[in-house]
Write the structure tokens for this entry.
Amino acid sequence: MYAPDGSVRDAYRGYNEWFGQQNASWLKRKDFEAEGFFRRTGITFNVYGEDDAEERLIPFDMVPRIITGAEWRRLSKGIEQRVRALNAFMHDLYHRQEIIRSGRLPERLFRNNTAWLPQMVGFTPPGGVYTHITGIDLVRTGPDDFLVLEDNARTPSGVSYMLENRETMMAMFPELFSKVKVREVSDYPRRLAKSLAACAPPGAGANPNIAVLTPGIYNSAYYEHAFLADQMGAELVEGSDLRVVDGKVQMRTTTGFTQVDVLYRRVDDEYLDPLTFNPSSMLGVPGIMDVYRAGGITIANAPGTGVADDKAIYSFMPEIVQFYTGERPLLPNVDTWRCSDPDSLKYVLDNLAELVVKEVHGSGGYGMLIGPTSSKKEIETFRAKLKDDPDNYIAQPTLSLSSCPIYTKQGLAPRHVDLRPFVLCSPQGVDITPGGLTRVALKKGSLVVNSSQGGGTKDSWVLDD
Amino acid sequence: MLGRVAHGIFWMYRYLERAENTARLLAAGQRMALTRGQDLADAEWKSVLTTLGLRQAYEAQYDDYEGAHVCDFVLRSKDNPESVFSMAERARTNARACRSAITAEVWEAVNEGWMTMRDMLASPVSDGSLGVVLAAVRRESTLARGATHGSMLRNETYSFARLGTFLERADNTARILDVKYYLLLPSLSYVGTPLDTGQWDNVLRSLSAERAYRWLNSGRMDARSIADFLILDDRFPRSLVFCYSAMREQMGELAQIHGFEGSAHECMRELDMRLTGKSVDDIFDQGLHQFIQEFLSGNQQLASAIADDYRFLG
């Protein structure tokens, strides 16, 4: 919100002026109201492994994170470039593998990758799209420095929070939105439906049938699955609702079986088809992979795209972008040491207390070490793990992240944030909703923003300027 | 719509209706217990358990029929899968599973209702607050029904919702009537005694029907006219005839939406025939208990025909 010299940043000028005019006790009441709103509407997040807290609210902070229109235009270009590269990379990996032949990417990187699916080799998904929905996690380290922290090409979640956070803000502070012009996010579900429809298989006709596949109400992101289906006017289906009939995937309706053309699945690859992957899975649809490979259905995201979420692959993203677009990457990576490389490993082991070390396949903030805030004992335990299996880790510097204000009982206080914009991809192009999910570390000094680790969220504004 | 979702909606409304009726029954039980001596109070609480079909389960836990125990068991016991709280919870689970088929208003009504129940039933309910809790149960169910009326599209989802509501309601009314008539009086010689009329009064109260009945039958309180009212009066929203007419209407809607009629429609027509043109004398000639038993099993047949026709499960 403030520049280093103490002045208010451009992006926050309108908001700051408004905020200065608000009465403190009124704001306190609004903060209280927000929680009630979320609880009533049941916007919850399930945390695994905690009996009591089966459904939890993600804390919501009512101070928006604001990005100017000009900043967003720059960011969008970088994001679009990255998503195009990701798609080209997926296609190449499952076909000619030129990037490997050219020596830019070591073959073992995907051979050892559990998300790599041999079943996808030689197959091109309808429209050539692999990552229909991508979430790119960004952090900012300076006025013009946005870095990519992570690519989420498997099944990125959080978009419902982006939408509900905005709804909540508009319900609580309507007058603020007439003062500050913020770009809309609410048409994301419509854009998603349109983008998915554009990826339908050739035989689907003019109005393809879209369905959202959820593992069910016990899944951590169930709320989001229901929300998206609802907003798209699509059916929310579970595996048991689907069956392969006459070579097509069909859903059991009150009048019989109806064909599904596009399946936005929020079920992981390995549970998708018990005949192809995990035979004990009840979540998927027996035979769906055969229908898919015969061109009878679109699965979004395509099975096997999780390869790109791997943090070792991430470390090669600058090379990947360069290789497929022929351009310099507009959005740089955070510096990353691959522990598989002996020199890097030595450096990482020597500097553990200063670094963040992550598991290559990890997500959700699990299985990581944050050097500066860890005890000596934690560091030593991690050192042993690292030596034991260096290929399984990467390390990054703890960045001097920029911060955003949050509302606390004592007034505004700075906290670290990241930003996950949501990117749609179809043969018609790349479509980025202006905004995204801002996650915020609620603990002072903390760098961890994951909701499974007690982080919160806030509304993200892209100014209409 | 998906068969699974139709199933979920149908049962969600059944649970809501059942929770509400259970609360009414407890309220009537409490009133009776307060206006009688201990022995009779115990008998009343026992009859509440019988009506709910929970006597066996209750007796496995308790040796007495003390009001506090009965209420705790019926409202919140973890050993009772049919408790009011467990029904509120199941209704909410179904609402979550069918989240994209119901409106935000219905979801919020059910979710808030569940949160209220969870807080109110976190610890045993004292005598003094029982009335407040029971009123809250009724109110939550009413809110959900109101939200359904006011916000849901009149499509097949709505039809399954209404079918669930009225099928369950018909079932409850029939059970309450049956228990009184068949099980409660120690012997026939009690007919017409204060015990008898007191019990009838209780039956009317458990269906929130006492005022309506009084309007229509000033001063009279006998089995025949009460049975007439609860079974055949098409103005009373909890009478069997009323419930069936509402179900018939929804079955008609479904036939129109889908363009076909299945075995459930045939079943509906058969059940209708058993009620149309019947007088209360016909019913008493046949035997009220006999009539109700047939009615309940017809209800059950209809429910499974609906589940089959509309592919609830497979």
